[in-house]
Specification:
By secondary structure, the protein is an alpha/beta fold. Helix content is 37%, strand content 9%. The protein has 9 helices and 5 strands, in the order ααβααβαβαββααα. The chain has a 5-stranded mixed sheet with strand order 2-1-3-5-4, with helices on both faces. β4 and β5 form a beta hairpin.
């Protein structure tokens, strides 16, 4: 049961309010303890950093038409810098691909004030706090679900496509999409790299749901996910979201 001061009891009416409320959340005791322990103890290479050590809100414009859904912040990446996929090897791969596809202003992401901006694209995750061993529990995923639900709701007027990085995000997002009014086909769409499903919702334009292997080092170092594979999915999603048509018109 959330405490009376739990910021999640207040329903954000804008993305800015949502981001602010997310960054104050303390609902999951194990994750609060872990994210703060990591921030205190630090990695030797970042000893002179003041770690963020809090939940990491979504990053990108509030009227995005493309949403990228990951897993959870990395202990010494986003949990250090306070911005999604910023300051680690996973982010290096993701932002290089976003930049190559015309969706990011630069190919690198090192810290929150590095000048990076995203074009029509927002990045979020189903769990906003860094988990031990990068593995949130099902209870933690469920506890954080209301933030994703609200983010999706606030983005729905402009949202046209979602790219989910990895099976965890896929499984976490499907019930949120269903709760938001999107019809999920039966049997449920199966996650895979290149998976693509078009979802319908009364009164809304179709939403394209695409899957990509996660940009984890486990996938990128082994070649399971190559830069070309990632760019192919992001490029398709950008086209489906109408982003590259917008750019061509400029
Ligand atoms: Fe709050 Fe989500 Fe972090 Fe849990 S994982 S403390 S619900 S922001």
């Amino acid at each position: 049961m959330p405490a009376a001061s739990d910021p999640s009891l207040v329903i954000p009416v804008t993305i800015e309010e949502l981001d602010s409320a997310v960054s104050e959340c303390r609902r999951c005791p194990r994750l609060v303890s872990w994210r703060e322990q990591v921030a205190r103890e630090k990695r030797a290479a970042y000893a002179d950093w003041t770690y963020w050590g809090r939940p990491v809100p979504g990053f990108g414009p509030t009227d995005a038409s493309l949403l990228i859904v990951g897993l959870a912040p990395a202990a010494h990446g986003a949990n250090r810098t306070g911005r999604m996929f910023t300051g680690d090897r996973s982010g290096d791969v993701l932002y290089a691909a976003l930049h190559a596809e015309g969706l990011a202003s630069q190919p690198t992401a090192t810290h929150a004030g590095d000048g990076l901006s995203l074009y029509g694209t927002r990045i979020t995750s189903p769990v906003h706090c860094a988990p031990p061993a990068n593995k949130p529990t099902p209870a933690e995923r469920d506890a954080c679900q209301h933030w994703l639900l609200r983010e999706l709701s606030l983005l729905t007027p402009t949202l046209r496509a979602v790219v989910v990085l990895g099976g965890f995000g896929w499984q976490a997002l499907l019930p949120v999409l269903a709760a938001s009014g999107w019809t999920i086909p039966r049997p449920r769409p199966v996650f895979g790299h290149g998976a693509h499903v078009e979802l319908a919702r009364p009164g809304s334009q179709p939403l394209h749901l695409l899957g990509s292997y996660h940009v984890s080092q486990q996938n990128t170092f082994t070649g399971r996910l190559t830069p070309a594979m990632l760019r192919a999915v992001l490029g398709t999603a950008a086209d489906l979201a109408g982003l590259r048509a917008e750019q061509r018109a400029k």
